[in-house]
Each structure stands twice: as C-alpha cells, then as structure tokens.
Amino acid sequence: MSGHDSKYFSTTKKGEIPELKDELNSQYKDKKKDAVKKVIAAMTVGKDVSSLFTDVVNCMQTENLELKKLVYLYLINYAKSQPDLAILAVNTFVKDSQDPNPLIRALAVRTMGCIRVDKITEYLCDPLQRCLKDDDPYVRKTASICVAKLYDINAELVEDRGFLDTLKDLISDNNPMVVANAVAALAEIQENSSKPIFEITSHTLSKLLTALNECTEWGQVFILDALSKYKAADAREAENIVERVTPRLQHANCAVVLSAVKMILQQMELITSTDVVRNLCKKMAPPLVTLLSAEPEIQYVALRNINLIVQRRPTILAHEIKVFFCKYNDPIYVKMEKLEIMIKLASDRNIDQVLLEFKEYATEVDVDFVRKAVRAIGRCAIKLERAAERCISVLLELIKIKVNYVVQEAIIVIKDIFRRYPNTYESIIATLCESLDTLDEPEAKASMIWIIGEYAERIDNADELLESFLESFPEEPALVQLQLLTATVKLFLKKPTEGPQQMIQVVLNNATVETDNPDLRDRAYIYWRLLSTDPEAAKDVVLAEKPVISDDSNQLDSSLLDELLANIATLSSVYHKPPEAFVTRVKAAAQRPDDDEYPDGADTGFSESSVNEGITSPSASSSSGSYAATRQAAPAPAPAPAPVPDLLGDLMGLDNALVPTDQPTSPRGPPLPVVLPAATGQGLQISAQVTRQDGQVFYSMSFENNTQAPLDGFMIQFNKNTFGLAAAGQLQVPQLQPGTTASVLLPMVLLQNLSPGPPTSLLQVAVKNNQQPVWYFNDKVSLLVLFSEDGRMERANFLETWKSLPDSNEVTKDLPGIVVNSVEATLDKLAASNMFFIAKRRHANQEVLYLSAKIPRGIPFLIELTAVIGIPGVKCAIKTPSPEMAPLFFEALEILLKG
Amino acid sequence: MAGAASALFLLDIKGRVLVWRDFRGDVSAGQAEKFFTKLIEKEGDPESQDPVVYDNGVTYMFIQHNNVFLMIATRQNCNAASIILFLHRVVDVFKHYFEELEEESLRDNFVVVYELLDEMMDFGYPQYTEAKILSEFIKTDAYRMEVNQRPPMAVTNAVSWRMEGIRYKKNEVFLDVVESVNILVNSNGQIIRSEVVGALKMRTYLSGMPECKLGLNDRVLLEAQGRSTKGKAIDLDDIKFHQCVRLTRFENDRTISFIPPDGSFDLMTYRLSTQVKPLIWVEAQIERHSRSRIEIMVKTRSQFKERSTATNVEIELPVPSDATNPNIRTSMGSATYAPEHDALLWKIKSFPGGKEYLMRAEFSLPSVIAEDALPDRKAPIRVKFEIPYFTVSGIQVRYLKIIEKSAYQALPWVRYITMAGEYELRLI
C-alpha cells in the first residue's frame, strides 16, 4: 500500500495561491480534492496558506470522508488566525456531529475541540453534550477527551454546563475504552483545578480495577496512573489492591509494567506484613529486569526509574547486578545509567566481579564513559570499606596504562579515598607522583597537590614537587592556585625549614599582591596573619583533623525520593526532579501555533546538565570549601567588605552565575521592609519581601539610589535555603538615577536550591551592580507565602489525614499576645494566606477552628486554633507530615494575626 | 500525574519537519526544528544523545527509524515510558501501511499519515495502535472506497485486536518456539551473564472468534493438577504476555487463554536466568610479532548433544583496523576478512554437537603508528548460530486447543529453534 502524495508538494511557483484558489472552486470533485491536498502539503512544509481559508472551508460540506478530514486538519491550523471566518465552519460541524456515521460524529467533535477559537467553543457545548451520551462507544470515547480539551480552553464553561458530572458518569460506562479516556480527562482536569473534581473512592477504585482487565494497553496506563494517587485505608486494602494489580506485571507493554510497579510500590508503604512485602519484591524483580530487553530508549527510562527504586528498596534487585553489566552495543546513555545502578548495587559479595567490569569499561573509547567508570571504582572504594584495597589496586593498574584522562580521573578519586580512609593507603603516593608531569586538568592537578600537602611529612621531596608547580603559579586556574596555597602552608607547618619558608614567601606574595581573585587573596591574608601572629594556632586550623567523608553522591533525600517514586514512569522520574521544577504551564490560548518564539519566562532555571551530572565528588574540598569556593571566579572586582563573611563561601558555591539585568517592570503593594539600609549599602537602599500573588511566589523588591552616581547592571543571587527558593528569571532593574527608586517583582521558583539541615526562615541574598561591591543581606521568608491555592481539604479527608498521622507529628504552641476579636475577620485573614476553613466548634466559651493548608510537594498542614473571643491568647496546634516546619509556621502565623 | 503530549513531529535526518501534528497548541514547529538542528550540530551523532531532552520549558522525546526522527514534545509531566513506546508503535503502524518507514514513504503518503496520527493520538493521549484494525477504516489511495467507512467494533471493544467475521478455508495455526541465548564471557573466560529469552511466535489463520488455550509443561501448573513432573516440567518465572492473554486468569490458575489477533504476533515471551553452558565456545589466542605481524588462533567447540546440529554458525573476530594481507586457514567452513567491520568472519554451515574446529589467520600491520593514537576499541568476539528442533529451557507445548462456535477443526503446527542472541566473548 503506497501512495504518490509527494506530487502534491511540487506546485508551479508562479501564482501558486491564485491557482490553488481556482482549483478549490472547481466544479470537479477530483480537482477540488487534489487542490485541498496541495494546500495541506503547502501547510506541512510551512507555507502560509491561510489566505485560502474561505475557499477551503467551502469544500467542507462533502460526502468524501478523506476530503472532510483534510479540511478539518486545515481548520485546526488556521482557525485561530481567521477567527471571524472560522464561524463559517460551525454549521457543518454541528451538522456532522449528528451524522448517521459514528466516524463523522466523532471526527466533528474531536476537531471542534482542537480549534481554540471562542466562537467555535460556544457552539461545541451542545454537540459535545449529545456525543457524551452517544450510542456508539467510539463517539463517547472521543467526546470524553473533548471535555478535557474544552476545560483547557474554558474551564468555567465546562463547570457551568455540567460536563464534569457527565464525565464522571462515564467512569461507569460499559465500554472499557470510554472508561479509560474519561479517567484520563478527569485526571487532567483535576490536575489543573483547585477544587476536588475527581476523587477516587474505594468504589471507583474497584470499578476501575475491573475495567483494567478489558481496556487497551494505553487505557491501562491511564487508569494505573490515576489510581496510583489513591491512598488505601489500611494494610488490608493495600494488599487487596496490590493483588489485583500484580497480573499487570506480565503485560508485554513496558509502560503498563512500570505504571503497575508504581502502584504496587505506593501501596507497599502501607503493608505491614514483612512476608507480603518480601514476596512482592520477589515478584517485581523479573519484570523490572525484562525492561532491559526493550528498545534502548525505553531501557533508558526504565534505568532512570530503577535507579530510584533501588534507593528505596535495594533488596528487589540485590541479586541481579549482572543484568546491568554493559553490553558492547548499548548506546552510551544506557551504559551511563547502568553504571550508576551498578555502583548502587555493589556489595562485598559481588565487588570482585563488578571491579572486573569497571576495569573493562575503563579501557573503552568513549571518554566520558571511561571517566565515569574510573570514578565508579573510587565510589565503590568509599562505599565498601572491605573492598577499598582491591579498588585501589585496580586504580593503580589503570594508572599504569598511562592513558592520560584515566590517570587524571584516578588521581581525583584516590584523593577522595584518602579522605575516607586517612593514614591507610599512603604507600601508593610514590606511584602517583610518577604521573605528576602528565596532569593537565585543573581538578586532577588540584587533587594531586592536595595529596602532597596533606602527606607532606611522608613525602621526602614534597618541597621539590610543590616547587615545580610554583613556577607557573600565576597562570594556574583558581582551583589549583588555592590548593597550592594551602598545600604550601601545610608543608611549611610540617617542615618549617628554609626551603619551605622561601616557598611560602613566594606563594603568599603571589596570592596577595599579584592576584585579583578575592577568594585567593582573602585566604592568603588569613594564612599570613595566622602564621605571623600564632603559628601554633595556624597548625590547629590548617592541620585540623577532617571529618571522614561518605559516598552520598547521587543519593536523593527521602522526601524527594518519595515524590519521585510516586511519579514513576513520568518525566519527573527520568529527570529526578519534582514536576514543578520543569512543568511550565503556558496557557495555550495566549499562543499562536505559528509563533516562532516563546517568552523566556517559561524557563524555570532547570538545566539539563545538572540532571545527568555524573559525580559530584563527595570530598570536593580539602579545607573549608576551597574547591567549591573557586568553582567560579568572584564577581566583584572591588575589595569585598563582606558584612557576613561566613556567607561568602556558600554564596559563591552556587553553580548559577549571577543574573544580569536590563529591563524594567512595575510592581505593586504596600511599602516593603528595608533589608539593606542606605548606611550599609553606601547609599543604596534595598527593601524587599517574599510575597505570593496569583499563585506564584515573587520577590518584591524596591531599590533606592541615594548615591551621587547612576547605578546599573543589577544582579541577584540567593543562597541555598530551606524552601529551595531561587530566581526564576532575571532581575530587571533599569538604570537607577541618583535620588530615584525602582521597584521590581522577581518571579521565584521553589525547590531549586535546597539547603540541608533543619528548616529556617532565613533567606540569604546577594545583590550586586556595576558600580558597587556585592551586598549581602538576610531576609526572612514567611512560610505563608508557600501555602498554595489548592490547600483546601474536604472535611472527611481532613479527619482521615488527621487520624492517619501519628501523634508525634502534632505540635502545639501558645501565642499569648494575640487577640481574636471576630472569627469571621480572622478566617478572612487566614484565607487570604491560603489557609482554608474546614470546620468550627464551640467548647465552653472557646472557639475552636479547623483549617487546612498545603505547601509544595503537596505536604498538608492541618491547623487547630483555640481562642476565647476578645481575650488575649490563642492556642495553635498543627499536624503535618513535616512537623519540623512547625516553628516556621508559628512564627509566620503570629506575625499574620498580629498585623 | 496527568500529562499528555503537546505535538508529534516526524523529522528528516537534518531535523526538518516532514509532518507534524499539534495536539495542544502550546509548542510550535519552528521551535522544535531549531532545537533539533542545534542538537545535531552540537553532538554530531544524535544516537548518543539521551532520548529525553529538556530545553526551555519543553521536553523532547525522540527515536530514530531509518532516515526519520519521530519526536514528541510536551510541556507537562507526562508518562515517558508510555510516550516513547507509543513512538515505537507509530513506527510499527507506518511500516504496516507503507512497508518501510522513511522520508520518502512519509511524503508519498502524507494524507494517510495525518489521518493515522489523528486516530492514534487525541489531545496528546495515545488512543489506538493496532495497525491491522486501523487499516480496516483508514485506507491508502489504492484501496480507498467512496462508501462511508465506519469504525470497526474492535476499536472500542474489549477484544480490540481482532475483527469479527474473519473467514479462512483452511484453519491453521503456526507456533514457533524461539529461544535466544544471551551470553557474556569476560576476558578471564568466566561466564558473567547468561540468560535465555524465549518467545512463542504465532501465526494464526483462523475463522471467527476462536477461543484458544495453550498448555505448556509449566511446573507450577502440572503440580497444581497433581501430575508427575519428573524431568519434563520447567520453571517459568518471568513471563510477558501479548495483550490478548487474560492476565488475571493466568494469575489465578496458570491457564493461558486468549482470543488471538489475526496473523502473526508474539503470544508470550519469557526469560530464564539460569546459567547454561555456552552452546558454542570460542577461544582465541592473539600474538603480535614485533609490531609488524599479528597471528590469530581460534578454537571453537560445540557443547551440546551430538544428535543436534547448529546451522549458519558465524563467528566474528575483531582485528586491528589497520591490518592488511590476510592469510587464513580453517579446518572447517570458510573465513573471510571484512575490513568494513574490522573483523574476520568465520562461517560454518553445519556444526554438529561435540565437535571442535580450528582457524588460523595472519595479518600484516603497518610498522609505524601514530604516537598519540587512542587505544583501539576492544570489540568482543560475536557468534551467531541456530539450532533447530532444540530448546535450552526444555519448554514443550503440550496442547493448543482451539474452540470456535462453528466447531471447525484447526491444525496447530509447532516448531522449536534455539539461536544466538547477544552472544559475546570478550578478548583477552
């Protein structure tokens, strides 16, 4: 079966459009049809044929299905550019939606749903209403999806016309494909709505599990994905669900298998019986392994997911490490992922075999893969104490092959091994020193220098070795310079003889007078002062014992892992990022399909490179964050009088460069708190506050220029913080003339920039401009700005959640200074901050209020407020899966209720 | 979780759009094209790229087939496994329609391509990918009729893979049991991975809506039925079934029951990870003489019973890319130098069990080599073979019952064959 459509692509150049116009209006059917095909061909190759709109639409009324489909296709593409003419098509659409042929009925409503023109949409409602109740399942399944289309264009219309109820009824349809599409549509609508629309009860659950047996493979995926959100009431229900889902593991479709795995893993969290859990783990292993026989692209998705699964349940694949051994013909992206999983599964039992594999890979030709294999050996050494020696001997063998990049990579990981097992393997230093001359990469050089400095007392010619590097000191990258500085100081402290003394003079001179790198200069000055005032103290500082490192690279923190596991098979699980980090909701209505450019604001600052980043060396720093500190040169050319010195290192450690500014934006709102007074900012005053507007978090800022000169080139950077707040775009401040003020709203993203450790409301900010040094200031983030608009809970859900959380998750606090004068006013105030009222009761003379709120990653806050009207003192109790956030909550609540 | 594709693109080898179908109006053709061009420019080789790429708010997932890229763009957190698999299914459907999917066949059939895309995906959700049924109501020019086509029942039925009313004069079923042996032997001669991947490939020519039941020598089933399983039963632990098989039924009582699609399909696949002795063993000794000459000695042995015979045995030995002047002798079969693969190909038509053959080859090497030459890519020895009437697992089809309303007699034909899958032995 082969066509000859390519002829339609070649039309005579001269007067193409008028010629087509003639043909479209031809009285001969065949000529007409050919003309429409030519139009579609032109459209396909990107020519603008919108001027033929009327002529094409005139061909719409035809008995010929093929022709009809082509005209419809044309309409989908051009209706938006000709909204007034599009109305011409409505009549035919409506007529077609009542055609005796179900194929045409479905085609009409499917196409109408794709035309994002308000005038058409209005006319869609009646046909859609009919088609949802059509006798033919093919029409119903098409109409189900169409409800989601309509919701995307005009949500209100869907709600007003009662489509949601009709759609919900279709969950009980007797046709499995209709059910599956209704589920997909409802799940999407729910995702975009803050109201509870599609809640899975135990009744729908059982209905959908039954439908699972009969629908197409794609339908099974829709249903499993929707059901994976269901929280079983108890272990027994969870076991029941799992039992009904397990047969899906045998499906030939990999997507069905992965979605089933997701659902089983979710329910397993509730299952208490260890036997059942063990049994399930055993059942899941073979299907997961079989995913590796699929097409390489699918393998890639599977491997990214397996990476997550083994972090949570390492036992599932503990005995299957061999299936992750790389095949010769695996694409490089598959090999890279396999390697990562091999490291995760490596154990004392299998390490010998694994090392043999790594060694094999280290002699392949793909440089990135080879490097990763060498790093893998190092990571295994750090992870498995008993195997460390074997790992090192493999590394030494590799060094002997003398392939330059292998040697350099090996030295980098050996430095890490030294940090993990201090004073154990120094005997190999001599071998390392043999390769000294071949090192040309900064990280390898820096690592080697660190080793020499650290073990200076055991290397007879340490001074000579370091000296050889000193000659080129000014030309070295900052990373190497910093290490040379520290290593020379170490050498001097360990061997305070004449040679090192001279060296230290040279180095300190180079690192203070000759450099314009503030990091290097600051560190050199500190050493200098230490050495000149109290050499003993210098010893204590520079030669202090370092904490032992562990291999935690590429391990995700538990709450993120939870979220990613709930997203198995989706892009989120491929990126290892929560969905909100990369999903950009662009309201399609605002876009023209033929637009070439999209606003850059859609960029959330997500970078692909960080997704697949191989290893971030766990011990990248030898002393106080030196590597991190130099990963990029300092942005400030002038001497930096850092008011918060401890911040410096951290701020510089960020991988994002400072963002430049150029365009103005106008803000709104009440006066902002001053965060950088003019006195501190040499005349620049900054006021700022993190705020929430229309469901988005902004950093609302105001800049006041009290200096004598214009300021421009403003940039901003946020230190890692509890909420992972980071700038979503560029800070856009216009050139600021003396005596003027500029206000901006900087959109922020969450979860980008997370700092470990206990939660704190502290937000450390650095702002710079072209005229002044970098300004650092601290701000506080109110937890309230994180409360999302969809935090409202159903009463039953609230009670259930409250019960399901253990008592240890409840935190109580008295807020003595607060007076509640009116319940309504208080509730309004709380609602304005997205704390939603659930219920109220009276207890003696006390009012007890229940509210719910939600912070990112869907973590709920259940709130109970107890107060007597008019009397100071409010008792606040909250229950949440993240009780560590409670102090932040109380702090924010107190400010809110006071103000 | 909800998430759907924004648009599907078919691009030529340079990333230019051949055909695209916009499902959600939130990405543009130009954007994707530009992105793709950049991708190819940067890496040179798109095959080494991760198949999931993020750029400026949009995720692109793509696969390549011949000179065509199939790519889906999305702005949401959609099911990546499902989308990528869907792309592979699109390839299957196009191949069914146009025999081969390539740039030319897409251009020649763009009207049908649009029609198919419209039917296979709606608003970014995969809908229907059964090529055989699709071709019942979407036809290419040659077969197009002016009468109205209707959607076949099968599209929305529980049995979505089979049309009603199929008629054959002679009702027949062919069942091929094909086992592929995957093996990886490291340079120390240790077997580090060995598995058997089996497939039951069916070709059905049956009338009506036949109910089929397949009986295997499955140990679990036989034991449950209280039959003796002495030596004949096998353990099937990792099985995947075609969507026609009733999974719940299998889970309950291990019965494999189904209404088959018409024509050929894989009824089930299975995997055994039990270690098997390599059926064909190869040992190679390589001697380099003073940089100018390389001598390869290869010994191969068949390690299966004498009554079986391997056929079409092909042993591919890597040789240095700059080798010249081959001088080859074999004790059986023929060996040729294939410089385009940097390999020596040794073919043995028929290789009975328990035999051993030898080959000796000599090559000249250039005496001068570049100083900074990268190490050669170390390819493994690869082996291909087939052994008919033999399975490694010992799987047996005990019966295949076919029941249809009209009570016709159908003849099942069963064949067994074992072949090499990814059969790699690394060189020392």
UniProtKB/TrEMBL annotation, chain A:
SMART domains given in the database record: Alpha_adaptinC2, B2-adapt-app_C
Domain Beta-adaptin appendage C-terminal subdomain, chain residue ranges per copy: 787-898
Entries under SUPFAM superfamilies matching the protein: ARM repeat, Clathrin adaptor appendage domain, Subdomain of clathrin and coatomer appendage domain
Keywords, alphabetical: Cytoplasmic vesicle, Golgi apparatus, Membrane, Protein transport, Transport
Coiled coil: none
GO function term, MF aspect, one: clathrin binding
Domain Clathrin adaptor alpha/beta/gamma-adaptin appendage Ig-like subdomain: 667-778
Pfam families found in the cross-reference section: Adaptin_N, Alpha_adaptinC2, B2-adapt-app_C
Biased composition (Polar residues): 606-616
Membrane topology: Peripheral membrane protein
Region (Disordered): 586-649
Primary localisation category: membrane
InterPro entries with a match to the protein in the record: AP_beta (IPR026739), AP_complex_bsu_1_2_4 (IPR016342), ARM-like (IPR011989), ARM-type_fold (IPR016024), B-adaptin_app_sub_C (IPR015151), Clathrin/coatomer_adapt-like_N (IPR002553), Clathrin_a/b/g-adaptin_app_Ig (IPR008152), Clathrin_app_Ig-like_sf (IPR013041)
Subcellular compartments: Cytoplasmic vesicle, Clathrin-coated vesicle membrane; Golgi apparatus, trans-Golgi network
Protein transport as UniProt keyword: yes
One of the GO biological process terms: intracellular protein transport
Biased composition (Low complexity): 617-635
Family affiliation: Belongs to the adaptor complexes large subunit family.
Quaternary structure (record): Adaptor protein complexes are heterotetramers composed of two large adaptins (beta-type subunit and alpha-type or delta-type or epsilon-type or gamma-type subunit), a medium adaptin (mu-type subunit) and a small adaptin (sigma-type subunit).
Role, per record: Subunit of clathrin-associated adaptor protein complex that plays a role in protein sorting in the late-Golgi/trans-Golgi network (TGN) and/or endosomes. The AP complexes mediate both the recruitment of clathrin to membranes and the recognition of sorting signals within the cytosolic tails of transmembrane cargo molecules.
Protein name, UniProt field: Beta-adaptin-like protein
Classification lineage: Eukaryota, Viridiplantae, Streptophyta, Embryophyta, Tracheophyta
Automatic annotation (TrEMBL), chain B:
Signal peptide per UniProt: none
Principal subcellular localisation of the protein: membrane
DNA-binding recorded as keyword: no
GO cellular component, one term: clathrin-coated vesicle membrane
Pfam families for the chain: Adap_comp_sub, Clat_adaptor_s
Domain spans labelled MHD: 170-426
GO terms under biological process: intracellular protein transport; vesicle-mediated transport
Keywords: Cytoplasmic vesicle, Membrane, Protein transport, Transport
CDD domains linked to this entry: AP-1_Mu1_Cterm, AP1_Mu_N
Cell compartment(s), UniProt: Cytoplasmic vesicle, Clathrin-coated vesicle membrane
Keyword NADP: no
InterPro entries: Adaptor_comp_med_subunit (IPR050431), AP2_Mu_C_sf (IPR036168), AP_mu_sigma_su (IPR022775), Clathrin_mu (IPR001392), Clathrin_mu_CS (IPR018240), Longin-like_dom_sf (IPR011012), MHD (IPR028565)
Family to which this protein belongs: Belongs to the adaptor complexes medium subunit family.
Self-association and partners: Adaptor protein complex 1 (AP-1) is a heterotetramer composed of two large adaptins (gamma-type subunit and beta-type subunit), a medium adaptin (mu-type subunit) and a small adaptin (sigma-type subunit).
PANTHER family, alphabetized: AP COMPLEX SUBUNIT MU
Record protein name field: MHD domain-containing protein
Organism: Papaver atlanticum
